[in-house]
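User: I'm new to structure prediction. If I give you an amino acid sequence, what do you actually give back? Let's try with this one:
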Amino acid sequence: MASSQGTDASKASLRQTYLSLCEHMPKDFSGRIDGQVRTMLRMLDSYRNAPLVLCYLPVHEEIDTKPIIDDVFAAGKRLALPFLDTTAAKLSFYEIESPEQITRGARGLSKPPTPDAVPLDEWDFLDSVCFVPGLVFDGEGHRVGYGAGYYDEFLAYYPGEKIGLVRSVQVSSNPLPHDDHDIPVDVLVTEGSIWRCRALF
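Assistant: Good question. You get back a string of structure tokens that encode the predicted 3D arrangement of the chain. For your 201 residues, that looks like this:
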């Protein structure tokens, strides 16, 4: 379904196509698939071994991360959610210590848990994994998201493993358009497989 030619116009077209696909997906179907993605994720060693998980809150019928967040807390892992500092135009992650601290903002972003909370820094990220949102991914880990570019700026300096949680119908068999500043994920987790981008394992 995806174009193999890289232009902003094709990104916009893909964005609309996959937004429509997600929004028209039957709830019982997407719920069943999301549960299977969650099961597959538990088989991924890097996730199982990570003491810190950078997650996001779903928008536009993305994979439901709320049960995964429950798993993170139940496993005794640390959880961090993204916040957009509009003054600096920068994405930062804040540690969330309980589900009660989660405050939803726009576009899958959260808000700092307390007014005096300090964002995590690069030293915190060394033993972490990061779930990266996207509407469609390809086999090399490139994705089309919502077009703001904040995640790519963050991922350019992120040292941990980048994981795309995605339903198989949102994996393109063709290469997606991408630019030099677009950062691919390392792993795709679907309802049927764990895909190390560029190699199946």
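You can read the tokens as a compact description of the fold. Here is one thing that stands out. Residues 8-200 form a domain with the Rossmann fold fold (CATH 3.40.50.10420).
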